[in-house]
Specification:
By secondary structure, the protein is an alpha/beta fold. The protein contains seven helices and six strands; from the N terminus they run αβαβαβαβαβαβα. Strands 2-1-3-4-6-5 form a six-stranded parallel β-sheet, with helices on both faces. The chain is globular, with a radius of gyration of 15 Å.
Length: about 180
C-alpha cells in the first residue's frame, strides 16, 4: 500500500501543533499511514515520548496510566482498532479517566479492502455506545479546531473524546502490486 500523501499536508502539521500546545507528553500508536506525520513529529520531539503498541487496546491502558502519572497522552489508531478496544473502554468509564484518541477511518470513501468495511461502519456507533464523544473531521480547515476542542473537553472537563479523520480527508489508499 502507498501513502497517498507522502508530503505532510498543512492540517497534519496543525494536528501535531495543537497536541504539542496543550502539553501532550505521550503519543501511543499502532503504526498507520494516516497518522505517519504526527508519529514522525512525536518521535523527533524530545518533549514527547512515542510509544509503539502491538495492539490498540494497550493504548487505553497507556493513556490512562499517563494521566495517573500526571501527564497528558493521546492514542492514535485506525478505525479497525476501535473494535479491539471496546472491552478496555470500560476502564475509562469505571475510573472516570479523561481520554483522547484520533482515529483514521477506513471502510469509507474509495475503500479497496472489504475487510475494512464492517468496522468502518460501526466505529462511530461503538465509540458512542462506550460513552465517548465523537467529533468528525471531513475538511482540512476543521482539523485543528476540532482536535483543540476535543483536547479541551478531555483534559479540562475530564471527558472521553474521539476525533475521526474521514477517509476522504486522509486520501485514497491504493493497493500496489
Amino acid at each position: 500500500m502507498t501513502n497517498p500523501n507522502p508530503e505532510p499536508l498543512a492540517w497534519q502539521e496543525d494536528i501535531f501543533r495543537v497536541i504539542k500546545q496543550v502539553g501532550v507528553r505521550q503519543v501511543a500508536y499502532v503504526p498507520d499511514a494516516g497518522h505517519a506525520h504526527v508519529i514522525q513529529r512525536a518521535k523527533a520531539d524530545p518533549e514527547i515520548r512515542d510509544i509503539v503498541l502491538t495492539t490498540e487496546e494497550e493504548g487505553v491502558g497507556v493513556v490512562s496510566g499517563a494521566w495517573l502519572g500526571g501527564e497528558r497522552a493521546v492514542l492514535l489508531m485506525q478505525s479497525s482498532g476501535v473494535g479491539n478496544c471496546v472491552n478496555m473502554f470500560s476502564l475509562l468509564e469505571s475510573c472516570r479517566f479523561p481520554f483522547f484518541t484520533i482515529v483514521t477511518m477506513r471502510g469509507e470513501y474509495a475503500e479497496f479492502n472489504p475487510w475494512q468495511g464492517p468496522m468502518g461502519l460501526a466505529t462511530e456507533g461503538a465509540l458512542k455506545l462506550m460513552g465517548i464523544t465523537v467529533y468528525r473531521v471531513d475538511s482540512p480547515q476543521d482539523a485543528a479546531e476540532l482536535v483543540d476542542a476535543g483536547l479541551s473537553s478531555a483534559f479540562d472537563a475530564g471527558q472521553r473524546v474521539a476525533i475521526l479523520l474521514s477517509q476522504s480527508l486522509i486520501g485514497r489508499k491504493k493497493w500496489v502490486r
